[in-house]
Sequence to fold (344 residues):
Amino acid sequence: MQNYSKELIAASTIPIVLSILKRGDNYGYKIIKEVQEISEGALNWKEGSLYPVLTKLEKNKLISSYIKTENGRNRKYYSLNDTGKSFLVQLQSEWQSLHEIMQKIWRPQNPLILE
Amino acid sequence: MASAKPFDLRIEVDTYVSRLGDNFLLNSEESNELRDHFHCQVEELAKLGLSDKEAFEVSKMRFGKQSIVREEYKKIKPFGELSRYLIVAILLLFFTRIVINSFHFLSSVSLMCTLEFNIHTALLRYFDLGLKTLFVAWATWIIFRHLKRQKLNKVLLFSIPFLSLFSEVFFLTVGTFLFERYNGTGSGVYRQLFDNSSYLILCYYLFLIVLFVLLWRKEKYLNYNLRTT
Fold:
């Protein structure tokens, strides 16, 4: 299984979280589970690190939250707001562009590749 | 033979999250969110056949180091802890006024009791000291009972400024009335009661200093422990 560097995981956390929330409102634990499911276990976050990220996104007004009672517990749900949606579009464009650049660089015929 | 204490998941999760959010780093909503996280995961792992204790141990491992999570939260709210310390300091100031006003009021009550129930003047000082000590013991018991639960009761915290205001007004009206009514016949015994209050207030300040040092050391100990966990 692929092991990602800490730096890459940290950099990808915000776009991943926003993308998950774009699919619909969700709460912390479920977001972690969905990421594990989609990545087939490859993206194995230290789960505690997600919650400060969610707090940060909420503080930056990219997502909003509400409390819902489920199974007798108050659960904090997050939803992506319009600012978050625009920010996600911007992030997607950045990641796509970066991906294309990397692809070009890594093409075997590219002289930049050092043997 | 003493039986082993049964594992109580709710208490364990509460303790773990309280420790993580120590010194008011997390607000109640954030703490509840983390509690929900652990309960969700334990429920899921229990379905696979793990006991609550085992599931909680696995959850803690998956959660990651507390020190790292704390650092992440601190990055988001660098003034969070400072502002909360400030709130505690202001509340302590209000609380100190309650204690001082209560002592003054109790002096008036002692004076009243002595003269109404014909308690000998020589015993007045001890009666007053007993009354004030009882008050301190009661107040300490209330505070420690709340601290032991590791939950700062919001109602109690919010009531402190109002209680302080009430104590100021109450002492000014009832306390002064009692004092003026009974001190004339007390021939200066109020001085003794004032001394009692002064000694106890001094003890209170010493207690606050000791508490401050202990909390300071606890913070250092916790920081060390969290770094090495």
Notes: Confidence is low (pLDDT under 50) at residues 222-229 of chain B. Residues 83-228 of chain B form one domain. Chain B is about 85% helix and 0% strand. The helical segments of chain B are 9-20, 28-47, 52-63, 66-76, 80-116, 121-148, 154-186, 190-228.
